[in-house]
């Protein structure tokens, strides 16, 4: 029996810290990604959570545009990259994995891949820095509803958006069984 113990433990991986006592995620982020956890205020009638408040001084970028993008289950929107604006994501409904790949030559996290889970169980606001490839993957059972508040107004005549197919081999991540673009 001892052999089984040693054999299985030798093949096992030990959990590393992932959260702190106050519930902060100890997750790695691409350099420059900003995050703010949303506080849900609930009373006997319902709940309220602030999405954006100038008083937070969250970033020094202007508030130019707000839109909602939805994502059907098992669908990926991406890979996308923006050169002149940052995205500001706020998940309202559902569970979405945001996969990011930093290709910025001078970034301390250059060449690293990151996976963040945005969920309506722990809402947060995150920014996506320019020149970071990103893809949004609905890993839930229901349609995701995401608010985006990009730092520049959408240029209909010349969108600031570059795309790679979700199955590109230029980014070290695949979405088996998912569809999208
Ligand atoms: C972003 C945007 C798109 N559109 C139009 C263009 C197009 O016909 C349709 C869908 O646009 P998109 O394919 O860009 O929509 P979508 O794929 O939902 O866009 C989002 O994807 C994620 C991954 C991101 O990175 C975001 O920046 C944003 O581009 O909506 C607008 O009218 N206004 C806008 O502000």
UniProtKB/TrEMBL annotation:
It catalyses: dTDP-4-dehydro-6-deoxy-alpha-D-glucose = dTDP-4-dehydro-beta-L-rhamnose. The record marks 154 as: Participates in a stacking interaction with the thymidine ring of dTDP-4-oxo-6-deoxyglucose. Keywords: Capsid protein, Virion. Residues 7-29 are annotated as: Disordered. It is an enzyme of class 5 (isomerase). SUPFAM superfamilies: RmlC-like cupins. It comes from the Bacteria. One of its GO terms (cellular component) is cytosol. Its EC number is 5.1.3.13. Pfam families: dTDP_sugar_isom. One of its GO terms (molecular function) is dTDP-4-dehydrorhamnose 3,5-epimerase activity. GO terms for biological process: polysaccharide biosynthetic process. Catalyzes the epimerization of the C3' and C5'positions of dTDP-6-deoxy-D-xylo-4-hexulose, forming dTDP-6-deoxy-L-lyxo-4-hexulose. PANTHER family: DTDP-6-DEOXY-D-GLUCOSE-3,5 EPIMERASE, THYMIDINE DIPHOSPHO-4-KETO-RHAMNOSE 3,5-EPIMERASE. This is dTDP-4-dehydrorhamnose 3,5-epimerase.
């Amino acid at each position: 029996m001892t052999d089984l113990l040693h054999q299985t433990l030798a093949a096992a991986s030990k959990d590393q810290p992932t959260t702190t006592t106050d519930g902060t995620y100890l997750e790695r982020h691409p350099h420059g990604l900003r995050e703010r956890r949303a506080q849900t205020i609930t009373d006997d009638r319902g709940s309220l959570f602030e999405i954006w408040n100038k008083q937070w001084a969250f970033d020094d970028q202007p508030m130019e545009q707000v839109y909602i993008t939805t994502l059907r289950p098992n669908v990926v929107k991406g890979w996308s990259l923006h050169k002149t604006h940052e995205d500001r994501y706020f998940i309202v409904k559902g569970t979405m994995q945001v996969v990011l790949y930093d290709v910025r030559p001078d970034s301390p996290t250059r060449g690293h891949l990151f996976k963040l889970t945005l969920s309506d169980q722990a809402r947060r606001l995150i920014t996506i820095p320019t020149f970071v490839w990103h893809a949004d993957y609905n890993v839930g059972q229901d349609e995701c509803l995401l608010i985006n508040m990009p730092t520049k107004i959408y240029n209909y005549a010349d969108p600031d958006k570059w795309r790679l197919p979700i199955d590109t081999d230029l980014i070290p991540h695949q979405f088996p069984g998912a569809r999208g673009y």
